[in-house]
Amino acid sequence: MTAESPTPDPARPSRLRSVLPDLAPWRASADFRRLWLAGLVTTFGSFLTFVALPVQIKELTGSAAAVGAIGAVELVPLIVFGLYGGALADALDKRKLILWTEAGQAVLSAALLVNALLPTPAIWPLYVVAALSSALVSVQRPALDALLPRIVAHDHLPAAASLNALRWQVGGVAGPALAGVVVAYAGLGWAYGADLVTFVASVALAVGLSPSPASHEAAKPSLKAIAEGARYAWSRKELLGTYVVDIAAMLFALPLAVLPFLADELNAPWSLGLMYAAMPAGAMVVSLTSGWTSRVHRHGRAVVVAAALWGVAVAAAGVSRNVWLVLLFLALGGAADMVSGVFRGVMWNQTIPDELRGRLAGIELLSYSVGPQLGQTYTGGVAAWKGVRTSVWSGGLLCVGAVGLLALCLPKLMTYDARTNEHAVRLREQRLAAAAAPAPLGAPAEG
Q: CA geometry: angle at 202 spanning 199 and 206, to 5°?
């Protein structure tokens, strides 16, 4: 008598699907696929430069403060062009903005390559390129953020946020790890050259995006339009909370500027590429198991808890004397930061009206970019004053304290619930009504 085959467990596939990333946005939107692939290529190359630039400044100056100054020179263009770039994203075709700014980044990569190939590379072009690149990113990022809710269904936005983060993390793990090898054995020119090639490839991919003109309600780019967006952000204290929590976390606890010096202190210069890759690697683990994020509704609490855990992990990395423990804690910090980033993005995308998306995306850009830029200057300055380790662990502790204080001061952030928040409910109903509306007369029927 043959034994019967065991009955398959019907819950097992659903359990697996609830953990793995949700691919619905990828399947449903051709524009999302193009944008995702273009972003992956660009991210991979940008991380090569992200590692090569501070290494080159370190080689030319030997100063932690000089490396940290990258954040200072990027700050002013970030503020000015981030706010104006948000107004441009509301008023102009988002596809054109993305294409032209991507082409500009390719030109800047070419400038870095030429400078690196000189017999005696100059230091000033590195800061000039960093500032100009910051300006281009500040114009492009609001357009990218404002485009996402147009090409992805409302209920697919959490999944799209996780997939976009996964794209960044794949490049963030592979790029820095490869950059450490390329810079050490092939030279800085190869890193900058590879970045140039990736920008050319991403432009070719982005050409296929559908046009995305301004909405009829969008205001023309002006100081008045920027002020209107700022007033709206100020009126939404739960959104305001996501901005300031992220700024505090990145200001105090982002150790990127001092990683070349930390690797030297640990007598492990070989680990620099791994240090840069550790945080994206931890974040990638979260993205690969991100199915659970769609079942979380109290996004504000998740942002606060994750930001505090980021500070704890960075502080632990600062006190650890074993390079593998440092890498572990940096990876845990990256995982926590990923959780915070996913839920910040979901709150923004599910509650902000289309006609304000560009301007609010500009403010969002400031919230998650000003902190890192100031953070590089802060950590570099503290490292020059008190030492590299003190800079890292003290920044982590300050992050925890600042996030806790902000949570107490912003109760609307802690009580936010996507199921009941008036802005989330209104936008959900508007998108459902738009999806159910009959097609205009004369429109081709879907086959």
A: 140
